[in-house]
Amino acid sequence: MQIMVTLPAAARLRGRNVLSVTDLGADELAGLLTLAQNVKERGREQLSLLRGKTLVMLFEKPSLRTRVSFEAGMTQLGGHAIAATGADFGIGTRETPEDAARVLSRYGDAIVYRTHAHEPLARFASAATVPTINALSEAGHPCQAFADLLTIRERFGTLQGLRLAFVGDARNNVAISLAEAAVMSGMSITFAAPVTHRPPDAFLGKLVKLGAPHNVTARAFTSPLRAVRDVDVVYTDVWTSMGDEQFVERNQAALRPYQVNAELMAAAAPHALFMHCLPAHRGEEVTADVMDGARSVVFDQAENRLHAQKALLLALLTDLRGLTD
């Protein structure tokens, strides 16, 4: 199999923490996506690459795709994964993030941590002596963004010059990481959200800076039709994130005009994809006909969590020689 020239960039990730998309350079992100595609094409051929390695997974929030994809990925690579929930470890109550990180670093070769506030995660990662991966915090969801870009690149063959619209709560962690990864890869982005849920101007400015080598644009509109006009990808997420359930009624009232339905998809380019990170609330942020329609790639996204995370584990824990022979 031909090895892509961007693999050396991914090899530079060995031993590092990945708490946000911007912990990677643009070339490292591209290399990671190429590695993920390589891993996906090889199936389970590389079973022995993480033999003897242990992944420790900590979940303070519920997890389906993240937990199962990391555990399955580690198993397929020949390693082992251990999962614990918040009630099991009590970081921040029973012991400090720093103390927990120092202990767990002596048990595992890498740590995956899903949490609420980002600051304790940053403290944890700073004290850990093995790579720490953000499996979701209030500040971002980088693992989801890696899988999303892998999915888009598979469909279009490139990310350069594409246009993506995020519709709904444009301040949530999925939107943040997706936008960062998109502009770093040469995609322009628009957000469709009411004023109460639009990203701050400072964040839009940050996106333009991140995408400056590609001359990308990053804009927010209150009109969903204007935001999705002729875009290549329409993306949405639940209107209320985990931990914010007290805002369900407020968010439903504010975001109801931002439902992704057949009418809204008709404003996008004819070839446009529909994406959702799941879980989805059919009939709220997206209608069932769009979710299950021919333009939907939501289950490809879900599958690609496995491949993107296998690539991330390989990049953090090996020199990738097994993929470049």
From TrEMBL:
Q: Which GO terms describe its cellular component?
A: cytoplasm
Alphabetized, the UniProt keywords read:
Cytoplasm, Transferase
Q: Which domain of life is it from?
A: Bacteria
Read off the InterPro entries from this record: Asp/Orn_carbamoyltranf_P-bd, Asp/Orn_carbamoylTrfase, Asp/Orn_carbamoylTrfase_sf, Asp_carbamoyltransf_Asp/Orn-bd, Orn/put_carbamltrans, OTCase_ArgI
Pathway(s) annotated for this protein in UniProt: Amino-acid biosynthesis; L-arginine biosynthesis; L-arginine from L-ornithine and carbamoyl phosphate: step 1/3
Task: Look up the signal peptide feature and give its range.
Answer: none
Q: Name one GO molecular function term.
A: ornithine carbamoyltransferase activity
Q: Would you tell me the protein name for this molecule?
A: Ornithine carbamoyltransferase
Q: What is the lineage of its organism?
A: Bacteria, Bacillati, Vulcanimicrobiota, Vulcanimicrobiia, Vulcanimicrobiales
